[in-house]
Design goal:
There is one protein chain. By secondary structure, this protein is mainly alpha-helical. β1, α20 and β2 form a beta-alpha-beta unit. Strands 2-1-3-5-4 form a 5-stranded mixed sheet. The chain contains 23 helices and 5 strands. It folds into 2 domains: 333 residues, no CATH class; 118 residues, no CATH class. It starts with a helix and ends with a helix.
């Protein structure tokens, strides 16, 4: 039982590696692969860490989806381990640590993030690791942990700016509930300074490029993302991120942090969750933004559930927990992992639309190649980074050139060379085609072959005689963020 969190974390990593090659690349992974060949301190919509990881994994094993996703599998395993350790820091016996780790191991958010290489994967690990370091520093008084937390936070901020909200939430929690002595501790502020220094290259890049991350965030808030949800769904959605039947565990953790005198020094965690829930609802953030605090709540809640298991009808209660864990594991695996054949995955995609974005990219690229064959030398212009990334990944084997797109960082890597070469336009709206290109005719429509309703299904492929104006003169109008 004492080794359970470690064993559960290792098991999750192994399972994720085994299933890593299923379906195909997610559109974001295709984007990261291309960004890895344009390394910078920041991009319009992310930091350099995930593209760097994609570049390293691709250099180790070019074209291997399994190798690309190994860091994510390891990160998910570490989240499971740290969730168990958090339960121990919050007063849990070995069984409570095992229960907390088990809840994380079967959690949909952990398995899905661990299946893909994503900024969210590393972000979840950063939030969990910082939470553990902070709780341990408060419990033990070991001030050396604060600079370590600063390093982790700073690297997390280089990945994406979301951990800044964690820092704000924890600070707000300490201001509300204490222990306020932390505000006078120079070690705490040294950690904050380290994080800021590590984040500074990202800040400098964003400032010099007009803060495109803000425009991307506004687009997400407007609902222009696969995983966007209405603002009011952020808190209810938390029930789904681990498992509906295991939600009582983290809810018990939230209640315990507010009410149990034994964990009074860590009440700031509960207030951090409340503050960030309000912030993310007010800013129309995505539901998973709040998921980074779930491991801490699971750790606190597992201690309460452990005590509950020793009261009343023990056999029945333990059986219910066992059934909840097994049932959650089955449902989460189906939702998060490529267990269902692609041609039968419609219901899975309806539940988790991101799964649809991992299906059909080789066939998509073949359709473009079939059209390009009739206009060799054409410029390929796509509507989004997923399309462009797929063409750059699969296109060379089919004789396709590098693709261009105005979407996010791809917009910074353009424009195409000036000239009158014809254009293969992929997924562009008719209004965009009318203002950018001339004499366009529909030549094909994207069909993934398995009837999955993803963002590309049915997208038009047009052949146009050329651009309306030189690319350099109109590229600023082609570029878009979101």
């Amino acid at each position: 039982m004492r080794r359970a969190p470690l064993l559960l974390g290792a098991a999750v990593t192994v399972v994720l590696v085994v299933f890593a090659g299923g379906y195909g690349y997610h559109r974001d992974e295709l984007y990261f692969l291309e960004a890895g060949h344009h390394l910078a301190w920041s991009y319009a919509d992310q930091g350099p860490v995930t593209p760097l990881v994609a570049r390293l994994m691709s250099d180790i094993a070019p074209g291997s989806l399994t190798v690309l996703r190994i860091p994510s599998a390891i990160a998910a395993g570490l989240v499971v381990l740290l969730t168990g350790l958090l339960a121990g820091e919050l007063g849990g016996r070995p069984r409570a640590r095992a229960l907390a780790a088990a809840c994380a191991a079967v959690g949909t958010i952990v398995l899905f993030n661990g299946h893909l290489l994503s900024t969210s994967t590393l972000d979840l690990l950063v939030w969990t690791l910082v939470s553990w370091l902070v709780v341990r520093a408060v419990r033990t008084g070991d001030n050396r942990l604060w600079p370590v937390a600063g390093v982790v936070l700073g690297l997390g901020l280089l990945n994406k700016p979301l951990p800044a909200f964690l820092a704000v939430g924890l600070l707000a929690g300490v201001l509300i509930a204490g222990p306020r002595r932390l505000l006078r501790n120079p070690w705490v502020w040294s950690g904050a300074a380290i994080a800021l220094v590590l984040w500074s290259p990202w800040i400098a890049w964003q400032a010099s490029n007009g803060w495109p991350q803000i425009a991307v965030s506004r687009s997400i808030a407007a609902g222009n993302s696969t995983s966007s949800q209405p603002w009011w769904a952020i808190v209810p959605f938390q029930v789904l991120l681990v498992s509906p039947v295991l939600a009582p565990v983290w809810i018990a953790g939230l209640v315990r942090l507010f009410r149990d005198p034994a964990v009074r020094p860590y009440r700031f965690l509960a207030w951090a969750w409340v503050v960030l829930a309000v912030v993310f609802m007010a800013s129309a953030g995505k539901p998973y933004y709040l998921a980074g605090l779930l491991p801490a709540l699971l750790g606190a809640g597992a201690v309460a559930v452990d005590g509950w298991l020793d009261r009343g009808r023990r056999g029945l209660r333990r059986g219910l927990i066992g059934i909840a864990l097994v049932g959650s594991a089955a449902v989460s695996a189906i939702i998060a992992l490529p267990l269902v054949p692609a041609d039968r995955a419609g219901q899975v995609v309806a539940t988790n639309p991101d799964v649809g974005e991992t299906i059909g990219w080789p066939r998509f690229t073949q359709t473009i190649a079939d059209v390009y064959r009739h206009v060799p030398g054409a410029v390929i212009l796509t509507s989004n980074y997923g399309e462009a990334g797929a063409i750059d990944r699969y296109g060379p084997a089919l004789g396709l050139p590098h693709a261009y797109s105005g979407h996010n960082a791809f917009g910074d890597w353009g424009p195409p060379p000036n000239g009158s070469a014809p254009v293969v336009a992929v997924g562009l709206d008719r209004s965009d085609i009318a203002t950018t290109l001339r004499d366009c005719r529909l030549r094909a429509r994207i069909d993934d072959g398995v009837g999955i309703d993803n963002d590309e299904q049915g997208a038009p492929v047009d052949v146009c005689r050329g651009p309306q104006r030189p690319w350099s003169a109109q590229w600023s109008a082609v570029k878009h963020l979101g």
